[in-house]
Design a protein that fits this description.
Layout: H1 3-16, E1 18-22, H2 28-38, H3 47-56, E2 62-66, E3 84-87, H4 94-98
Antiparallel strand pairs: 1-2, 2-3
Length: 111
């Protein structure tokens, strides 16, 4: 088997283990961990900002979970071995335009 086909097979196996879904309230602590470790303090969303996103823009606030090779999707904390990531969804700001509550405090958008 060529290395190209091995890589393709490996990618397909990884993709088959991913599960995408909307962020749920129980996911907020883990989302906050990721946010805090990924952005400088002044740019990272607070827990309350993440809760607002989840409440007011749930269809646009998504997460991806990685199924363990030996079992179901694991959610929540680093200690359970799950990988977990989030996405704010639409990149053009449509959800913020539609709902001013979603705008960041330091945003230059006018209400």
């Amino acid at each position: 088997m060529s290395s190209s086909s091995q890589q393709q097979r490996s990618n397909q196996e990884l993709l088959s283990r991913l599960k995408f879904r909307v962020v749920q309230p129980v996911d907020i602590p883990r989302c906050h961990e990721l946010e805090s470790s990924s952005y400088p303090p002044k740019e990272a969303a607070s827990k309350s900002e993440l809760q607002s996103r989840q409440h007011h823009a749930a269809p646009f606030f998504r997460c991806v979970l990685l199924k363990s090779e030996d079992g179901p999707v694991k959610v929540g904390s680093k200690k359970d071995g799950a990988s977990f990531g989030t996405s704010g969804g639409a990149s053009n700001g449509d959800e913020q335009e539609a709902n001013p509550k979603l705008r960041r405090k330091d945003s230059t958008n006018e209400a």
